Amino acid sequence: MKTKITYSSQKINPFSGIFFAIKSIKKKKIAKLILRHLGKRVKQTKYSYSDIILNWIFCNLCGAQRIEDSVKMKYYLDNIPEIRMPSPDMILRIFRKLSTKTETFNTQRATHQFNINLTMNKLMLSISDKLNLIRGDTLDYDNVILECEKYDSNRTYKDGEKYKVKGYQPGVGFIGKVPVYIEGRNGNSSAMHKMDETIGRAFEILKEKNIRIKRFRSDAAAYQEKIIVMMEKKGIEYFIRCRNSKALISEAEIPCLKWDEIFIREQKLESTSLEYYPFNRKENPCRVVVVRSLNEGGYNYRGIATNNRSLTDQQVINFYNQRGAIERNFDMLGNDFNWKRLPFSFLNENTVFMIIEAIGSIIYQYLIRNFSNKIDFVGRRFRLKRFIFQFIMVSGEWVNHNIKLFTNRDYTPLLE
Question: Which pTM value belongs to this model?
Fold first, then answer.
């Protein structure tokens, strides 16, 4: 039996699920929000800033990983009403235009490069606020190494030591899964360098949006006097991993200390709390919750510095360990939203790209939260790839401004 091939001139869109994402975002008036933050382009231009930013994000939600993938997506997205897909060159040109000058700081040991783009960060925060995604009052901060061979990228740091690869090391603030501040840093700048200034800028834009932070959580890079003083002045509870020092270990080894048995991930350990004066301070001690575990030569000690005195040791440790979710946030940004595929040669332009991709992740979080409440084939924990296969990839065609879907899945609740 021979197989016959039949052909049709009908334009079938295999990514028809994107229509519902576009409709949902249009309803929230995100395009107008972008216009308010970035302004209008000159009258002669065909595409607005919102066209370029949102249409690239919609490409991303269909599986595009590189800017040039928008060429393939243009064929399918152009037949959706009110969508105007710009060329890859146009997308790149406008992203460059949104960049700010990279600031250079010289020290005796190195030249450091930071890119501070407050306009794009304020836009990102406004979109999160508009979509009602910011829930919680804990700011998590961390840096992530992005390995990349770019014209201006430098060798990175890892665990305080020079790393073999080149790349960037942006600083990122999160509230839950939502990125609220992103600052570009070149790879040779350790996470500690000028961290207090970076965190200070994050707090400023959060304050502008009336987003109140009650708790701050970070790793040992934030164990600095300037940061602890900042939190004390702002009345914010901090939970920061201590860097081990002889003075701290000596305090922990005092024989009369009472140690309590605790469990962390089913591992039995011991903990105690110390009143400790860090950085040779003479006043305002902090509480250090110390955890110790046996090794062949004695004990390993790890501490968490905090100004909270109401939580138990176990509660402090559990709360601090929740910051492990940041690694999942970075994994999502790196793999699903292309932080591992930076398109430009320079830090300032790539910082714009990172922020726009973070906006894409924010829009995605809104969509799956919204859609999962209405249909049973989208889950809140879906990663992007599964969302594409389960929701976006449905064949359809446009007939007289109506969409015809070739599926037995019910999308009609999304039209309500």
Answer: 0.94
